[in-house]
Amino acid sequence: MCSCYYSSVWLHVNTGECNLASKHVPLQYLITLHWFETLFLCVFQRMPAPIRLRELIRTIRTARTQAEEREMIQKECAAIRSSFREEDNTYRCRNVAKLLYMHMLGYPAHFGQLECLKLIASQKFTDKRIGYLGAMLLLDERQDVHLLMTNCIKNDLNHSTQYVQGLALCTLGCMGSSEMCRDLAGEVEKLLKTSNSYLRKKAALCAVHVIRKVPELMEMFLPATKNLLSEKNHGVLHTSVVLLTEMCERSPDMLLHFRKLVPQLVRILKNLIMSGYSPEHDVSGISDPFLQVRILRLLRILGRSDDDSSEAMNDILAQVATNTETSKNVGNAILYETVLTIMDIKSESGLRVLAINILGRFLLNNDKNIRYVALTSLLKTVQTDHNAVQRHRSTIVDCLKDLDVSIKRRAMELSFALVNGNNIRGMMKELLYFLDSCDPEFKADCASGVFLAAEKYAPSKRWHIDTIMRVLTTAGSYVRDDSVPNLIQLITNSVEMHAYTVQRLYKALLDDISQQPLVQVSSWCIGEYGDLLVSGQCEEEEPIQVTEDEVLDVLEGLLVSNLSTPVTRGYSLTAIMKLSTRFSSVNRIKKVVSIYSSSIDVELQQRAVEYNALFKKYDHMRPALLERMPIMEKTASNGPTEIMQTNGETEPSVPDTKHLPLVTQPANQANDLLDLLGGNDVVPVIQTTLPTKPASAGGELLDLLGDLSLSGGLAPAPSVPVSQPPFLLDGLSSQPLFNDTSAAIPPMTAYSKNGLKIEFTFERANPNPNIAVITIHATNTTEADMTEFVFQAAVPKTFQLQLLSPSSNIVPALNQGSVTQVIRVLNPQKQQLRMRVKLTYTHKGSPVQDLAEVNNFPPQSWQ
Amino acid sequence: MRFMLLFSRQGKLRLQKWYTATAERDKKKMVRELMQVVLARKPKMSSFLEWRDLKIVYKRYASLYFCCAVEEQDNELITLEVIHRFVELLDKYFGSVCELDIIFNFEKAYFILDEFLIGGEIQDTSKKSVLKAIEQADLLSPYHTC
């Protein structure tokens, strides 16, 4: 009997494990087994038993350094490798387990892949368990040997033990490749129909994975879904709802098919809510919240864009929304899902309001997670249910002060979405305060949002400028590059605020020159409106006393400062140049410009050289070129896209350039002017925003007009003529555009003084009878040539004027020739034509300038 | 759910379950980055964050962080409950679970997880049912194996 006992033990020890046929092995027997195994192995095996998993873990944890750990790992790996080589069945499981541990520490474990396959193929449950775990960790679909699992899994799916089947379903459902899914879908489908709920629930989730991997296989699971929802088992119910959700999300046909399940789903949900305490599924007093949430999600998908379904679920949604306990996270999770469903289906307005109010209550919850999801949901619904969300505006604004970054971001986005004409002042106060104190990652977005909102809803221009100033001074370095041109355009168009704006910007510059967008906008403004600055014309606030030299000091300071970027330097050099026509300290400016004509920075150098040329050769053009900018037309692309030619400063039209090089190119701009002015028929240009008061835009030309209040609202067809350097336009003589019409208008002498005589001849432009075409003829009776001759004209507000290029700018002495130039006058209101002209030329070495009014136009020219 | 990670305050990985096929080195990179982000969070912050294009839900239990990456349409609040349920299962199984239990019995932690979730979705909402299945499966493996 003893020997029989020992021999049967031997038999068992040989296999080393419990055979699955005899599952119920008493513990005592197992302990004896263990002792015998160790004994036999020590005596009869060549190698010592590989150390146990826990032993290894303990050892590795004693390592004090990374190097020490690596050494231990390497040693153990070597032992494991040789053990694998010997095809040791006994300890394969242990070795693979150890390998998995080392893999989690970050060490390579690929040499264990095949071993996992062998474990899976073993008959022992422990082997399979570790084998499948290893497969899930090491054998994903990217591995070559992945498919070798397929046959084993197939066999195990049909195993007699449900726990083995479970292992196979789990592995397939977590990481099966498309090919594997294709091969095994049939098996899964079979198991989906089994009455064993343990297997059915797993098969359902496995089917979800199969459908995700191979959507075409969805159809084959359809029959099995027939009575999934009649199950009592919550596991099966839950996984079935997941499966149905997956199918409905992927296929509109399935969606239509499953819509009929809505009443059943509503019933199940109702039972969950109404039923009493069920200990097995209870979580903090709520019955199976996981299932409730999944059902609500499926209802959402089924009710979307379908009135009938939405109506069928109306009541239950209201019930869940009002009856769910909100003291714990669990209840709020259900409410959250309910709100998402209500907002997504075709629910009646009462229900929607209820949902938004729930979100409003969420916002007041102490739990920041709840606040977070509330803000996220409100952001989704703010467009469709704007008024309802507005009611919670103050709570949302409070969330700007939250410590959590994600909550702050959402609150910010939501706040911008809620800004409108009524709340702009209050909201902007909060948002500007937020801008001051928020993290740098928010500043750019917040600044952009403020600009956008201010543009849309600014209650006054002053407020608008103030808001921009505030952003520039507090978050100036975070402002987006494309804001600079936008702001410049805005400032230009706010004509009556120019003095105020330049003053404030100047003061800001005195404080801080490090924020480039602020510096760029400021320099530009000082360049444009520097004259207003020194003349102390500010109406809005106390004008500051500042001298020309002080202003130039500041601008020159920008040029030399290390803080200024090359772009900024460009802005400030151009600004300095512009001031040469607005300030009297021209010599100083000339000096600055000449210094920079040898600058290392190529851009600065080019500008300086050209400005230098402007001082020397083309000084007669300088005033005209550096004139005040007119109001710019705003286009849809949100940037100044017209080529502005009036002052000879071109602004490129591409809105996505990082900076606007304001380059004055006296030589080349002539060409562009020609394109704009020459050859085009005059069309009445639609004026966009006209300032209500006449422009106090300076510039010598407009000062001419005095009572002929020329509004600043001229569109790009300017009244400011620019004469062309002769070498470009030689040979281009201005010709009368049309032949004399039958009703010829008599010519007239517009000006005659000091030997200079200017005659006007007229044509009518066909087809537009409102346009008068005047050709001026300038002749010189003196014995000296009149050189650098420039003719300028201005007309009253109701007219528009276009000057084409003159034939030359030398009026030859003694009537030996004439300068001709074409003027087109648009006179839509048929008012009496009046004109003021300004003439400049050099005669016998001295510059001459004269102003005159022309009032003697023949009636036919304007009637 | 895309993946679930368990890691300690010192940044040691204790469990990683991936429900999408990802390259090994990408996994390592993501784990490293995400650990950094989550460990940097202050206690007053919410349990949710956006990372890359994913929604991350995390919760700290004693010295362990449980961290899940979920899809856009997933309910974050219920994910917190899923994490909590998993911790409860571990607790019931190990008896007042602590990090050491999960370190020394990591394979069992995986077994429990795999009995609770498949493909990132809950298999069974009954705690009792999940624990019973694990118990039964354990009976098929003698205790001395690994």
From TrEMBL, chain A:
GO cellular component assignments: AP-1 adaptor complex
SMART domains linked: Alpha_adaptinC2 (SM00809)
The entry's keywords: Cytoplasmic vesicle, Golgi apparatus, Membrane, Protein transport, Transport
Record GO biological process: intracellular protein transport; vesicle-mediated transport
Pfam families (alphabetical): Adaptin_N, Alpha_adaptinC2
Membrane topology: Peripheral membrane protein
PROSITE patterns hit by this protein: GAE
Compartment(s) of residence: Cytoplasmic vesicle membrane; Endomembrane system; Golgi apparatus
Span of domain GAE: 743-858
Keyword DNA repair annotated: no
Family classification: Belongs to the adaptor complexes large subunit family.
Record protein name field: AP-1 complex subunit gamma
Organism of this sequence: Oncorhynchus tshawytscha (Chinook salmon)
TrEMBL record, chain B:
A single Gene Ontology CC term: AP-1 adaptor complex
Localization, UniProt: Cytoplasmic vesicle membrane; Golgi apparatus; Membrane, Clathrin-coated pit
UniProt xrefs under InterPro entries: AP1_sigma (IPR044733), AP_complex_ssu (IPR016635), AP_mu_sigma_su (IPR022775), Clathrin_sm-chain_CS (IPR000804), Longin-like_dom_sf (IPR011012)
Transcription keyword on record: no
Keyword annotations: Coated pit, Cytoplasmic vesicle, Golgi apparatus, Membrane, Protein transport, Transport
Family: Belongs to the adaptor complexes small subunit family.
Pfam families: Clat_adaptor_s
Assembly description: Adaptor protein complex 1 (AP-1) is a heterotetramer composed of two large adaptins (gamma-type subunit AP1G1 and beta-type subunit AP1B1), a medium adaptin (mu-type subunit AP1M1 or AP1M2) and a small adaptin (sigma-type subunit AP1S1 or AP1S2 or AP1S3).
One record GO biological process: intracellular protein transport
Membrane topology recorded in Swiss-Prot or TrEMBL: Peripheral membrane protein
One MF term in the entry's GO annotations: clathrin adaptor activity
Protein name: AP complex subunit sigma
Domain AP complex mu/sigma subunit: 1-139
Location, primary (coarse class): membrane
Entry-linked PANTHER family: ADAPTOR COMPLEXES SMALL SUBUNIT FAMILY (PTHR11753)
